[in-house]
Amino acid sequence: MPRAYADAVQLVEKEARRRRAAFMSNSETCSIFNACDRAISESIYSPISTPEFDTSAMDGFALSSVATHDASSGSPVTFEVKGTTTAGDEPHSTLDDPRDGVPPCVEIMTGAPFPVGEDGDQFDCCVPVEEVTLVQNKLSNRRYMTLSKPAQWRQHRRVAGGDFGQNDRIIEVGERINAQHIMAMASVGLTKIPVMRKPRVAIFSTGCELLSSQETSHRFMIHDANGPYLTTILTKYGADVDFRGIVHDNPTAMENALLEALDEEKYDIILTSGAVSAGRCDMVPGVIDSIGGRKVFHKVAVKPGHPLLFSVLQEETAAFFGLPGNPVAAAACLRFFVLPYLRSLQSQPPEQPHPARLQVPKSTRPVLSFRKDADIFRPAILSPCGQFVQIIEDHSPGKTKPFMHANCWVHIPSGVDQICDGAAVEIYPRDFV
Amino acid sequence: MPRAYADAVQLVEKEARRRRAAFMSNSETCSIFNACDRAISESIYSPISTPEFDTSAMDGFALSSVATHDASSGSPVTFEVKGTTTAGDEPHSTLDDPRDGVPPCVEIMTGAPFPVGEDGDQFDCCVPVEEVTLVQNKLSNRRYMTLSKPAQWRQHRRVAGGDFGQNDRIIEVGERINAQHIMAMASVGLTKIPVMRKPRVAIFSTGCELLSSQETSHRFMIHDANGPYLTTILTKYGADVDFRGIVHDNPTAMENALLEALDEEKYDIILTSGAVSAGRCDMVPGVIDSIGGRKVFHKVAVKPGHPLLFSVLQEETAAFFGLPGNPVAAAACLRFFVLPYLRSLQSQPPEQPHPARLQVPKSTRPVLSFRKDADIFRPAILSPCGQFVQIIEDHSPGKTKPFMHANCWVHIPSGVDQICDGAAVEIYPRDFV
C-alpha cells in the first residue's frame, strides 16, 4: 500500500528538520550585490532609522513658514539668503539675528539636510525655487529672495525616520532575498549580508538507454532530459548542483557512483532519476539498501511519481531521493518532495498553493474525472489574469512537449474523482517565488 | 512639456532596434546545463521526432494482441518467451516460426524498443508482468508465459513520434529560455544551445551625499540603495552588470567616469542614478551633452521618474539612461524604460500587462484619485489568487520600506483621474517572466 502524499511530505519535512541545525550552523556572508535569491541566515532589523535627518524633498529655500503667513502678490515677503546647502553637505548653521528685520533663509537642494536654526521652526519648510524671485544687492553683495504666497508648516520636508524605523524588521530568517530586500538593506547601510550556505546537491541520471558522450551508442538509445532539467531547477532554487553524469543499470556501477559522492562528505541531497520502480532493471532501491541507506519510504500514492524512494544515506547530512525516470514524473517529485525538503532544511514555511478556477475546454464534457486513490499533480496553463486554469489534456509522464506549454501545476487531492468546470482548484506556479 | 510615456517608450524601442542587428550578430553557444534564463539567438526546431522508436510503457511481454483474443481464465493462452529486451538494448529480432504452434513473446522492460517481428503486428502490444504466469520447462529450458484475458491492440506501447515531431518549434528567437525549454531541448538531443551574448551594462550612482568606503564621511550622508538594486534587477534579467561605483556631483569627475566606461567599448547601456533633474547639482544632462551624447529625450510625463534622460553615447552600441536618484523612481524607470530597451534589443516583444481588479481598503472612500497629466506607476500588492490588487497608499519615490512590500506595479495611464473599487487595472509583476 503506497503512502499517502500528505504523510510522505510530512516525513520529508521531518527528516529535513533533523538536519536543519547542522545545516544552518554553516552560514556565511556575501556582498549585497550578490545576495539576491539567497536564503537569509538570520532575521534582519534596520540598524538605523531612515532618513537619519530631515531633508528637503525639493530644490528651494528653507525658511520659517510662520514668516510667510501674510505673503501675497500685493504684499510679498522677503528673506535674506544666508547660504546654500546641497545633498552631502553638513547642515547650514546660522545664529545670525535677522538683519534690518529681514528674516533668513537658506538655499537648499533636494536631499540636503535642513539648516539648524535658533529653534526648530526657524527653517521648518522648503519653498520650491520655481515659486520665488531672487534679487542680488550689488552694493552689499547680499542675496535676497521674495515670495508672494504663504508656505505650509513643514512643506516639502522629509522627516527623519519617515521610512525605516530603527529595529524595523526587513526580512525573516530563511526568507529568500528578493530585489526589494536588497534595496531596503542597502538603504539602511547593510553591505555584507548573512546568508545560509547554498544547499549542495548531487544528481545522477540512470539507465543503459541514455546516450552519453563517453559510451558507444546505437539508435535505440535516448537523450537524457532529467540531468539538465533537475540541475536547472535546483540551481534556480539556489542550490549548488553537481550533475555527476549517467550511470548504467548496473548495481556495482551505481554503488560506486553513490559511494564516491558520499565520500566527498559535502552533499545535503543526492538524487537519482530512473530505475526506482519494481522492474528487473530497477536497481536503485537495492543499491541504497546495500550501502546502508535508511529507507524512509518507497512508493507514494501520487500521479505521476509513485515509485519515489526517499532514504537517508548519512544521518548528519545526506538525504537521498530516487526519482522516477519519466521526465514529467521526475519534475513532479522534484517540485513536491525535494523542494519541500529544501524549504524545511532552510527554515522556510511550506509553500502555499494559490486558488484558481478550473476551466474545461468547451469541446469536452464539463466535468473532469480522476482516479481517487492518489494525489494527482497535473501540468496546466494559468490564464494571464491568474484566475482560470486549464489542465493539459494530452499529457503523459514521458512527454516533454505538452509539459513545455504548462506554466503551473494543479494539485488534485486523493479522494476527489470529479471536478466541474468553474470549480476551485489549488495551483502551484511553474517556478517558485 | 514633458514627453508622453507611450511616445517615450516607442523612442526607446526604436533606438534599441537600430542596435539589434549588431547586438545579435554576436551570439554564442552555452551548455544546456547553463542555458536557463538566457535569450535564445535563433528559433529552435526539434531535429528528430521523439520517441525515435516504439517503446514499452510497462515492464511486461511484447506479443500479438490478435493471439490473445480468445484468452480467458477457463482457456488461458500460452506464449514462448523468446528473449528479454531492456531499455538501452537493440530490439529483439526473431523470425522463428512458432514452435509446436506456440506463439512467441519477448520480455520487455519499460523504455525498451519493441521486437522486430515478421510483420508489424507480431509484437504489437505489451502485457504487464503482473497479469501473466511464468513457467519454465526444466527439460528444454524453455520459458513460457500464460495469460487469461485478451490484450488490446497496441496497449502500453509508446509510439514513435508521439511526443515531439521533427521540426516542431521548441522556442522562438529572442525568447528567454526556461526550465521546461531545457527539458524539451535535452530530450531531442540538443546539448549546446545558441544564445545571445548577455547585454552589458555599466552602472554609476551619483551624489555627494552617498557614503562610499573610499571617502571621508559624516553623519549627513546616506547609503546608496540604487547601485545594489539596479545591479540585482539587471543581473536577474540576464545582463552582465558592472557597478562602477559612486561619482560625486562634479561634472569633471562624471565626465571622466563616463569616458572611461566608453573607452572600454563594451557596454550596451550606461546607467546613472541621480543628478538628472533641473537643480543646481543636476549635472548629468550637461555632462552627457559635453561628451557628445545625442539626446533622445529628457523628462517624461510619468510619476515617479519624470526627470529621466535617454541619450545615445555611441551610435553603434551604447545607450545612456539617466535615472532619477529616488530609489523607487529609479526602479520604475528601470522597469518601464530600461527593460523595454533590453527586450527590443533582444528581439523580444513588448511585455504585456496582466489584468486585475483594483481593491480599495474599506477604511477609505471607494474611489482613488490621480493626477491626469502623467502615466502613473504605483507599487501595489497582488492577492495570492492573482485577481485583486491594492495600491500601496503610504508611498513616496524616496521610501524603500513601503516598496519592499509590493509585489507588482499598477499602471494608470495619463488622462485617468479616478479609479473606483473593483475597476479593471493593468499590472506588471514585480520581477518579469
TrEMBL record, chains A, B:
Keywords: Magnesium, Metal-binding, Molybdenum, Molybdenum cofactor biosynthesis, Transferase. Its cofactor is Mg(2+). Residues 202-344 form the MoaB/Mog domain. This is molybdopterin adenylyltransferase. Pathway: Cofactor biosynthesis; molybdopterin biosynthesis. Catalyzes two steps in the biosynthesis of the molybdenum cofactor. In the first step, molybdopterin is adenylated. Subsequently, molybdate is inserted into adenylated molybdopterin and AMP is released. Residues 89-100 have a biased composition (Basic and acidic residues). SMART domains: MoCF_biosynth. It catalyses: molybdopterin + ATP + H(+) = adenylyl-molybdopterin + diphosphate; adenylyl-molybdopterin + molybdate = Mo-molybdopterin + AMP + H(+). Residues 83-102 are annotated as: Disordered. In the C-terminal section; belongs to the MoeA family. Its EC number is 2.7.7.75. Pfam families: MoCF_biosynth (PF00994), MoeA_N (PF03453). The keyword Magnesium applies.
